[in-house]
Every structure is written in structure tokens, then in C-alpha cells.
């Protein structure tokens, strides 16, 4: 089967889901859905042996060939590992959801359509070799995640969480698109393979760091890194299968995938190393510290996810140092990449199972509030066992897989001392210290999660339901994941060789040609000389003490003001955007037509005047001027007097008559300027206009009748200045345009041919009906439309009828 | 003469815009009337005012005024007349419906949106 087709299989299958949901209501829709991830995981499993041998697979489906855009599915160690995680955990989550979501109460059709859409999107993200199709799938994960978080859309918190995650991840996604486009332009290709090959040539380009930062913004927002992690705890309003699948095992790891995938390109820049490592380790500390504060089971797990993602991110950052060193040090630092991928896999197993347990506790007791829970151990022994395995693995306790990866993490951080870039010799020590503190808090919240839920005093009176063990079907998926947790601990190198090494070879192509070259083995026992082991022992000791004394030191969380928290800032920013835009538009959109006229006229003054000023365009020339005659001066004075009369008169009758006077004066001008047709038309039209004005004025109120105390004719300086500005601009433009005529008039042609071609003597009339007859045609149309409009306005009274009906309704 | 006309046209524009910025609907329409006068005069002025004879063929005359601006103005006069007539009736209807000709009172409110 073609690999591109495999990507689209879930979403194609999703088309059938509503049909099955409606028609086959006897069977839980999830059973049909289950077939898809199971089929896909078996498909991808067949690729494991050749990928271990170093083979890669590529499959292409053209999309927009003229733009070089196609869906390219590229399968190497890294994308195969992710594809297996997505489909494998997807299968378990679907199985879990069959028992978690009620067949009758829930809209299962919606749920599984969204889930399958997400599965396709995620497979597309991890297999795309084309940057734009990667972005396409990336946003599809954001959208399907939005739909899934808001699944219970009648709840306010769900909608808030969905919107928040959408805002943050889409913000990052758009930034990432910017980075992709820069990369695409720099490398003249959108294929990641080809960009990797070109990376050494691109690294010195001045926009390279821009692309790097933008792509990292995408990765950090998706993977909930500091300070963008805030959407993840709010996304916990989603149904628990969604939280387990999207927000612990797959979608949040899309950012990690992106970092890993682009390491061969961006790691050549030191900015990358420091950003990824620094932000990662900060997120690790921050998330682990605030996890203990949470009282909601899923919120604890959300913060723990944030923290663990930070851990993996920082390991990827340390791993990218391998691009800056030579010799044995390359192996020292690629070890961090190995640890990152190993922990990524481990985290998917234990975090998935923990989320499912949290869902079971919620399902069986009716609450997720850890303050109400307690003493469930004897009531829910199997859930407790699974939760214990998951938590201890998360805390880094043997014999669980978390221990192995935590040890490797501490080793990798300690290895930083071998790297002397920018005087790191004195600063590197910060990293192990932060890592150690974060590990202590990880230990504390892991114990807090499992023991405060399952140990202590049982408080049945506070629980909405009587607690009892979950059905077997619901325990199946977390059980499988928990057994993986143990199995990985005992045969880590099987998993290491099968999954991790091909992925490491894909991230570090310079160091390793084929997966077999990656020479690491995972050891549970490092010997007494391993500093990491002593650090781990310290973690256990201090962590246990802190866990026992939580009530004593937890008040320090109250000293952090909520306003200064990142959530507070996000809310503030949203409010500011809302009210700011609102206030801004209510300031300039006054609803008064005068304001808009002011904007327009000011724009005319500023733009035209500014252009004239900057270009120094004003020209005055006294050539080609017609002589000034006495009559013209006289008429000008009449015109000015008439205009001033309009401006100052208190009576509208005077104003209308003055306007008529101005119109007749203009007609006189036309006579003086040798335009008989114009004069004729002007006289007639002015007469009709004045008659119309008088007719309308008969019905209109006195100018000030309705504005007692508000003198409209009173002089207004602001209006006058604007009017003066426009008038001056018109004058200046008129003078300078007349002063520099560049080409002669085309009228000579009309004058010469008016009789020979058109058989007429009145040149103006011949132009109107012969040379430029179209103008006249449409001018007639204008008159027709105007008269029809007037008839319509006078005879039709639709609005009034509507208004009457409104009144009746009231 | 053209410079003098330019100044006169500027003055007409100024008066027109001052009227358009006022509150009364009637004054706004009068303002548009003045604005079209100014524009028409601007058109004819820019065509040059030096011609000796009206653009009607007659024996032994070669120096005609430029006929093209006149044709353009003729079209513009008719169109602005149509628009003025329409807006006057619109003002009349507006006053009948709303009971005011004060533009500052004619704001969109939630009731009549």
C-alpha cells in the first residue's frame, strides 16, 4: 500500500463513521474505528526490519505540481517511531474510549471523526518531507485538537480551553510557516531532505536565524514549552482519551518531532543549541515545580507532561551540540539525542497509562479533585497498581523504564562539562543543578499523584459516586501500557535497537550513516563511579522528605500572585486585544458622517499636500495665460458674494436663492469662456435645481428648528481650517497643473474632422453624440436611474411597514 | 486669468467643504452643488481659457476653444443634476421618516440597524 495513502486512510475512513454511527447503533462505533489504527500499526510494523538496516522509503503524491507542491511521505527511523507511537497508542486509546464514552449519552460520531482526522494529520506531520504539506498537516492537528478539546461544547471551560489552545498553537503554526517560507526561499526547495543537504551553505545567511527562531516558535507552542505551556492544562477539559492521546503521547510531541527533524539543518547554528537546551530545561523546572500545586488529577499530569517535554527538548538541544564538536565528543553528545528519543518513547507509555487511570478514577468516583480522593487502593487495586507503575516510572525509580531514561538524562547533562563553547566551563554546572532540582520535584509530584489518590483516608461522603473498580475493558489499555513500562526496563536494548537507534541515525546523519552505527547500549547499572547514580539517590532521599512535608511548604505557592502568572498575562492580553480594538474602533468610528468627511478631507490635504511638498511639485508659470477681462472680474465678485451669502445666511430660502445666483454666474462664465451649450444647459438645469430645492425645502424644517441652542451656522474654526486646506490644495494643484502642460490637446483632431467625418458643425454636440456617444448613453442611463429611484423612494414605503410590524411586536 | 480662476475655484471648494462639514442635510446638499460648480469650472479652466471663438464651425475661423472639456462638463452637469435631484428627494424622504435633518442625530443605533 502506498505510504501517502496510509496517511489519509484514517480521514477517509472517518467519512464512513457518521453512517455507521447512525445505522449500526447496536455496536459501539469505536469497535469499527479500532480496525484502522490496528491495521496501520501492523502496516508500519512491517517497515521496522528494513528501517533498522538503514533503508528509507519515499512516496509522492502530487498536489499542485505547478507550484512544486506535493504530499511526500518519507519514512526513516524518526518518522517510523512516531508513526508507530501514533497508531499504536491510537489503537489503545480507541479501545479505552469504547469503554470510557457512553454509547447512548455521547455523540460518538463526532468524537471518532475528530479523532481519525487527528490521526491522519499527525501521521502527515511526521511523514511529510515537503515543508508546506508539513504545515498543512500541522494546522490540521491544531484544528482537530481544537474540536476534541471542545468536545463537550456545552461547557464553558471546554470552549475556553479549546479557544486558548487554538490561539496559541495557531500563533506558533503561523510563525512556523514564516520560518518554512524563509527556509524554502533560502534553499530554493521545500524538501526537508534537500534542505538538510544544503544546510552548510545556508547557515551563514542573515535570515537563517530568523527561520530558526520562527520554526522554534512553532515547536515550542505545540510542545507546550515555556512560556507557551499555558494552553495544555486548560486542554484537560477534553475527554480523557483525548488528553491521553493528544496531550501526552502524540500532538505535544509534534514540536519535539519538529526539533528533531530540523536538527540536521538548524543545529549548525549555536543559537539553536542554546534556545532548545535553555528553554527545555527551564520548562522542565517550571512544570515540575508547579505540578505539585495542582489539585486536579489531570492538571498534575498536564504540568508533568509540560515538564517531561522540557526534559526531552533539552536533551535534543544537548544532542545538537554534536554538530559543533569533533572526535569522541560527537558520541558523547549524540548520546543525549539517544536519551531524548528513549525518554520520548518511555514518556508515551507511562503518561498514556497515567492519563487513562486518571480518567478511570474520574469515571468511577465522579471527581478528579485530589483533595476529595484518597484511600482508593483497596477499592481499585488494579488501577492502583497501574498508577503506581506509571508514577514510579515517571519519578525515575527502578525497575521501570523512566529510571533508565532519567539516568541517561542526568548523564547527558553532566556531559555538558566536556563542551567549552562561550566559557561554558563555568556555567555548565547550572544545568545539572536545575536538572537535579527538577527531578526532585518530579519525584514529589509523582508520589503526590499516586499516594494522595489511592492511599490515605477514604472519604466516601465527598465523592459523587461510590467508588469501585473499573471494567476490564477500560483497564486493558492502561494495563498494556504499564506492562510495556516494565518490559522496556528489562529488555531496554531490544527497544533501543529496534526503535531508538534508527531515529537517532535520522537526527544525526553526520555522525551515523546507518542505525547499526549507533553504538549505545542501555544499562540499568552504571557502577559505583557513576555520578548520575548518586544524584538519583539524592533525588529519592530529598524527594521523599519533601513529599512527606508537602503541607508545610506548599503555602509558598500562594506567594505567587495570580495576576503575574502566565495565565493571568494571557487573559490580560486577550482582554486588552478585545477591549483595545473595541475602544480603538469606537474612537474613530463615531457614526457621524462629519467625522468621516473630516478623515477624507484631511487625507486629501495631507497626502496631496505632503506629496507636493516632498516632490517640490508646485510650479507657477505666467506663460499661456489668457488676459484678464473686466467682465470676468465682475462675475467673479458676484460669485464670491453669492457663495459668502450661502455660508452666512440664517434663512434657507436665502441660501437656495444664493445658490441659484451662483449657478447663473457660472452660466455667465460659460458664456465668457465661449461655451454656448454649457451656458444653455447650466441655465436650464440651475432653474430646475432651484425649483427642486424650493420644493424640497417646503417640506424640510427651518435650518435650526430642531437644534435649539445649537447654532449650526455658527462659525467653526475646525471645519473652516479643513475647508481652507482643501481649497488651497485645489488651487495649488490647478495652478501647477496648468503651468506644466506636457502634451498638446487631442482636440485638434475633432476640430479638423468634425465636418468631414461626422457632418456636423457644433463640435461639442458632435463629440457628445458621435465621437464619444457612449458617455451620453450612460449619462442618459444615470438620469433614468435617478428618476426611477426618485419614483421608488416616493411611492414605496416598505421600511415603514416593517417598522409598524416592529411596533406591533412590542 | 487661469490663476485667478484657480483661486476662485479654490474658494468655491472651500465654501463647499465647509458646508458639507455642517450638520444640516440641506446645507450638505447645497455644498455638493457648490462642489460640482467648482469642479466644472476647474475642468473648463484646465482646458485653457484663451480661445477666441465658440466651438461651432463658421467660415474663415480656425481658432476655436477646446471643445473636449465642454463635452465632458456637459455630461458632468447632467449627471450631477441627476444626483442632486436624487439626494434632494432622499433628504425629503429622510426628513419625513426620521423627523430630523440633523446629520448628527442620524446615527445607526441598535434599533434601526
UniProtKB/TrEMBL annotation, chain A:
GO molecular function, one term: antiporter activity
Assigned keywords, A-Z: Antiport, Cell membrane, Hydrogen ion transport, Ion transport, Membrane, Sodium, Sodium transport, Transmembrane, Transmembrane helix, Transport
Keyword ATP-binding part of the UniProt annotation: no
Membrane association type: Multi-pass membrane protein
Compartments in which it is found: Cell membrane; Membrane
Residue span, NADH:quinone oxidoreductase/Mrp antiporter transmembrane domain: 128-419
Gene Ontology cellular component terms for the protein in this record: plasma membrane
Domain MrpA C-terminal/MbhD residue range list: 637-702
Example of a GO biological process term: sodium ion transport
Chief location bin: membrane
Domain MrpA C-terminal/MbhE: 716-793
Record Pfam families: MbhD, MbhE, Proton_antipo_M, Proton_antipo_N
Domain of life: Bacteria
Transmembrane segments: 6-24, 31-52, 72-99, 111-128, 134-154, 166-187, 207-232, 244-266, 272-292, 299-323, 335-361, 373-395, 427-451, 472-491, 531-547, 596-614, 626-648, 655-673, 679-700, 720-739, 780-799
NCBIfam families referenced in this protein's UniProt entry, alphabetically: 2a6301s01 (TIGR00940), PRK12645.1 (NF009285)
Family: Belongs to the CPA3 antiporters (TC 2.A.63) subunit A family.
Name of the molecule in the record: Na+/H+ antiporter subunit A
UniProtKB/TrEMBL annotation, chain B:
Protein's UniProt name: Na(+)/H(+) antiporter subunit C
Gene Ontology CC: plasma membrane
Family the UniProt entry places it in: Belongs to the CPA3 antiporters (TC 2.A.63) subunit C family.
A Pfam family hit: Oxidored_q2
InterPro entries: CPA3_antiporter_subunitC, NUOK/Mnh_C1-like
UniProt superkingdom: Bacteria
Membrane topology term: Multi-pass membrane protein
Segments passing through the bilayer: 6-21, 28-51, 71-92
Swiss-Prot/TrEMBL keywords: Cell membrane, Membrane, Transmembrane, Transmembrane helix
Cell compartment(s), UniProt: Cell membrane
Source organism of the structure: Psychrobacillus vulpis
Amino acid at each position: 500500500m502506498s505510504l501517502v495513502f496510509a496517511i489519509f486512510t484514517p480521514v477517509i475512513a472517518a467519512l464512513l463513521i457518521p453512517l455507521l454511527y447512525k445505522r449500526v447503533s447496536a455496536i459501539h462505533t469505536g469497535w469499527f474505528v479500532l480496525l484502522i489504527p490496528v491495521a496501520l500499526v501492523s502496516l508500519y510494523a512491517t517497515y521496522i526490519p528494513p528501517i533498522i538496516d538503514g533503508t528509507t522509503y519515499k512516496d509522492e503524491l502530487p498536489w499542485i505540481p505547478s507550484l512544486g507542491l506535493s504530499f511526500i511521505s518519507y519514512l526513516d527511523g524518526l518518522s517510523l517511531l512516531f508513526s508507530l507511537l501514533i497508531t499504536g497508542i491510537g489503537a489503545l486509546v480507541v479501545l479505552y474510549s469504547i469503554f470510557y464514552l457512553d454509547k447512548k449519552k455521547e455523540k460518538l460520531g463526532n468524537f471518532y471523526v475528530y479523532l481519525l482526522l487527528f490521526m491522519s494529520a499527525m501521521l502527515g506531520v511526521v511523514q511529510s518531507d515537503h515543508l508546506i504539506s508539513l504545515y498543512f498537516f500541522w494546522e490540521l492537528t491544531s484544528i482537530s485538537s481544537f474540536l476534541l478539546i471542545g468536545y463537550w461544547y456545552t461547557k464553558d471551560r471546554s470552549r475556553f480551553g479549546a479557544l486558548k489552545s487554538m490561539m496559541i498553537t495557531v500563533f506558533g503554526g503561523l510563525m512556523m510557516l514564516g520560518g518554512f517560507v524563509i527556509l524554502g526561499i533560502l534553499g530554493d526547495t521545500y524538501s526537508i531532505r534537500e534542505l538538510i543537504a544544503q544546510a552548510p551553505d545556508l547557515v551563514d545567511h542573515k535570515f537563517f536565524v530568523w527561520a530558526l527562531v520562527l520554526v522554534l516558535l512553532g515547536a515550542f507552542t505545540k510542545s507546550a514549552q515555556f512560556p507557551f505551556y499555558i494552553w495544555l492544562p486548560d486542554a484537560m477539559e477534553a475527554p480523557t482519551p483525548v488528553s491521553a492521546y493528544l496531550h501526552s503521547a502524540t500532538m505535544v510531541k509534534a514540536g519535539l518531532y519538529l526539533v528533531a527533524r530540523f536538527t540536521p539543518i538548524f543545529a549548525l547554528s549555536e543559537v539553536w543549541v542554546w534556545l532548545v537546551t535553555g528553554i527545555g530545561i527551564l520548562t522542565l523546572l517550571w512544570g515540575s515545580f508547579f505540578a505539585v500545586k495542582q489539585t486536579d488529577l489531570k492538571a498534575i499530569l498536564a504540568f508533568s507532561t509540560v515538564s517531561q517535554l522540557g526534559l526531552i527538548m533539552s536533551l535534543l538541544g544537548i544532542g545538537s551540540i554534536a554538530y559543533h564538536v569533533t572526535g569522541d565528543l560527537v558520541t558523547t553528545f549524540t548520546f543525549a539525542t539517544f536519551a531524548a528519543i528513549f525518554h520520548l518513547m518511555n514518556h508515551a507509555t507511562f503518561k498514556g497509562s497515567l492519563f487513562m487511570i486518571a480518567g478511570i478514577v474520574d469515571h468511577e468516583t465522579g471527581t478528579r479533585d485530589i483533595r476529595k480522593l484518597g484511600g482508593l487502593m483497596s477499592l481499585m487495586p488494579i488501577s492502583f497498581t497501574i498508577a503506581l507503575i506509571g508514577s514510579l516510572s515517571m519519578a525515575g525509580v527502578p525497575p521501570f523504564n523512566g529510571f533508565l531514561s532519567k539516568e541517561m538524562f542526568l548523564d547527558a547533562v553532566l556531559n555538558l562539562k566536556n563542551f567549552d563553547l562561550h566559557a561554558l566551563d563555568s556555567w555548565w554546572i547550572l544545568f545539572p543543578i536545575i536538572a537535579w532540582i527538577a527531578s526532585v520535584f518530579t519525584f514529589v509530584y509523582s508520589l503526590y499523584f499516586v499516594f494522595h489518590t489511592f492511599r490515605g483516608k477514604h472519604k466516601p461522603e465527598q465523592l459523587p459516586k461510590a467508588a469501585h473498580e473499573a471494567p476490564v475493558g477500560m483497564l486493558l489499555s492502561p494495563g498494556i501500557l504499564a506492562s510495556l513500562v516494565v518490559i522496556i526496563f528489562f529488555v531496554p536494548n531490544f527497544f533501543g535497537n529496534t526503535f531508538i537507534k534508527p531515529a537517532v541515525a535520522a537526527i544525526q546523519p553526520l555522525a551515523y550513516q546507518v542505525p547499526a552505527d549507533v553504538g549505545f547500549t542501555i544499562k540499568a547499572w552504571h557502577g559505583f563511579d557513576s555520578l548520575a547514580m548518586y544524584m538519583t539517590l539524592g533525588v529519592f532521599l530529598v524527594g521523599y522528605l519533601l513529599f512527606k512535608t508537602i503541607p508545610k511548604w506548599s503555602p509558598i505557592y500562594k506567594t505567587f500572585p495570580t495576576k503575574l502568572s502566565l495565565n493571568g498575562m494571557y487573559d490580560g492580553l486577550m482582554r486588552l486585544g478585545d477591549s483595545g480594538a473595541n475602544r480603538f474602533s469606537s474612537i474613530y468610528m463615531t457614526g457621524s458622517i462629519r467625522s468621516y468627511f473630516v478623515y477624507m478631507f484631511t487625507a486629501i490635504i495631507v497626502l496631496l499636500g505632503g506629496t507636493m511638498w516632498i516632490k517640490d511639485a508646485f510650479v507657477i508659470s505666467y506663460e499661456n495665460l489668457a488676459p484678464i477681462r473686466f467682465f470676468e472680474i465682475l462675475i467673479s465678485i458676484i460669485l464670491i458674494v453669492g457663495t459668502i451669502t450661502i455660508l452666512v445666511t440664517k434663512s434657507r430660502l436665502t441660501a437656495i436663492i444664493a445658490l441659484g445666483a451662483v449657478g447663473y454666474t457660472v452660466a455667465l462664465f460659460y458664456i465668457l469662456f465661449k461655451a454656448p451649450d454649457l451656458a444653455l444647459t447650466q441655465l436650464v438645469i440651475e432653474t430646475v435645481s432651484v425649483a427642486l430645492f424650493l420644493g424640497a425645502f417646503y417640506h424640510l424644517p427651518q435650518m435650526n428648528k430642531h437644534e435649539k441652542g445649537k447654532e449650526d451656522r455658527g462659525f467653526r474654526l475646525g471645519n473652516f481650517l479643513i475647508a481652507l486646506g482643501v481649497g488651497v490644495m485645489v488651487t495649488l494643484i490647478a495652478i501647477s497643473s496648468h503651468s506644466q502642460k506636457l502634451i498638446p490637446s487631442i482636440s485638434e483632431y475633432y476640430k479638423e474632422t468634425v465636418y468631414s467625418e461626422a457632418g456636423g458643425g457644433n463640435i461639442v454636440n458632435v463629440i457628445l453624440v458621435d465621437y464619444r456617444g457612449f458617455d451620453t448613453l450612460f449619462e442618459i442611463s444615470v438620469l433614468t436611474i435617478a428618476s426611477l429611484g426618485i419614483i421608488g423612494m416616493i411611492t414605496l414605503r416598505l421600511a415603514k411597514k416593517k417598522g409598524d410590524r416592529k411596533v406591533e411586536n412590542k | 486669468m487661469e490663476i485667478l480662476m484657480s483661486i476662485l475655484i479654490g474658494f468655491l471648494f472651500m465654501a463647499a467643504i465647509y458646508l458639507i462639514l455642517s450638520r444640516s442635510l440641506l446645507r450638505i446638499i447645497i455644498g455638493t452643488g457648490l462642489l460640482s460648480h467648482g469642479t466644472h469650472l476647474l475642468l473648463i479652466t484646465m482646458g485653457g481659457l484663451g480661445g477666441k471663438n465658440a466651438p461651432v464651425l463658421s467660415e474663415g475661423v480656425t481658432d476655436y476653444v477646446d471643445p473636449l472639456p465642454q463635452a465632458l462638463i456637459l455630461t458632468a452637469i447632467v449627471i450631477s443634476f441627476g444626483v442632486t435631484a436624487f439626494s434632494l428627494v432622499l433628504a425629503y424622504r429622510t426628513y419625513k421618516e426620521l423627523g430630523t435633518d440633523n446629520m448628527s442625530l442620524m446615527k445607526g443605533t441598535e434599533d434601526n440597524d
